[in-house]
Amino acid sequence: MKYYNLKDKKEAVDFKTATIKGQGKEKGLFFPEFIPKFDLDFIENLHQYSDEEIAFQCMKDFIGDEIPSDVLKEIVSETINFEIPLKKINENIYSLELFHGPTLAFKDVGARFMSRILSYFLQDEDKKVTVLVATSGDTGGAVANGFYQTENIEVVILYPKNRVSEVQEKQLTALGENISALEVDGSFDDCQSLVKQAFSDKEINLALFLTSANSINVARWLPQQIYYLLALKQWQILEKENPVICVPSGNFGNICAGILAHFRGLPAEHFIAACNENDVVPQYLKTQKLEYKETVATLSNAMDVGNPSNFIRILELFENHFEDVKSKISGYSIDDDTTLQTIKEIDKKFNYLLDPHSSVAYTAMEQYLKENPGKKGFILATAHPVKFPDAVEMAAQVSIELPESLKDLMKKEKKSLEIQADFAELKRILLDKN
Ligand SMILES: *Cc1c(COP(=O)(O)O)cnc(C)c1O
Fold it and tell me: Is the entire prediction scored with pTM above 0.85?
């Protein structure tokens, strides 16, 4: 499989190059040269396959002969070595729980896959790679955990000061060793913009071999399709009609992976992009105008994105046909009061505890189902409520017990370096690492 640069389609690279480089010239995102279709018999009979086999079938066409089958099988099985259950909340809404991995959020899937792929590709190269990543909350922890103690890989994480939860902060600052955390005096968009500048800086690129682990990297983006298939495997046993799939969205990598799987043949009635007050995409779906905005800080902080990088991949899938995008995707913007209200209500009515991100998705789903009666579907529960104890306890007035693994982590010391949202400062730090 070749991947072309969405900014310059003449630039086409293999999977290895796309993974190591992260992005193409002019910061363009890589995109597969064609969309491999699922075998109809496979997709209609998912329950006959093991999760590992499904994950392997999902990924193999994107990698071709660049990685031997037995190695890829091993990698996908390590990627999903925790449960991903589809739980019923009520008659019409199910929850795909993506938070049973090591950092209790769905990004574990992409980060675990990417770290193993990168480490495979680097094993016969005499190269040290620096993974540079901006996080609005969960990416940092998942990447730190996924890459911790991986040989030949240094990880540098930028996160916005005071805008991530305590658990999230510990997950990215407490590991140390090959993981460094930079606490930026600014927003997630500032962090992301610093990272993008670093990628296009000549001097840095001469001194270091940089790659990204944001969802713009194909090795993080593509494996997210796997759990849509695992959801369908469970759905097909429970329900007849195709599901409406609602995804809490920030940078739009997750929902884009689901839509990609749908283009390959995964049955889905409709997709819902559930956003908080950062509503660039819901606005676009109304007005056809893509207007990037300043980020607003909300309770669902991993979705505080004013410039969703992956949305361009969705447009590419639909060949930029606005009417087609609109007929397949609905967008909703949910405010913080409603987010808290929904956590409280769903806990009370159905005894199901949502985290703030999943709560945004639940409300969006409920609104869509009200406008489109008779349909059913599932939300992607992207984080464990324990990662956001303040919001969840405030709303539901329950106290949530930390899992054992987190208790140990919370006792560890935070190690981070504070910096201004200033590229010169980041550059100095990166060059010093060399
Ligand atoms: C990252 C994240 C999101 C948003 O996912 P995107 O792929 O950036 O749209 C939603 N919820 C949680 C908990 C996250 O960590």
Answer: yes
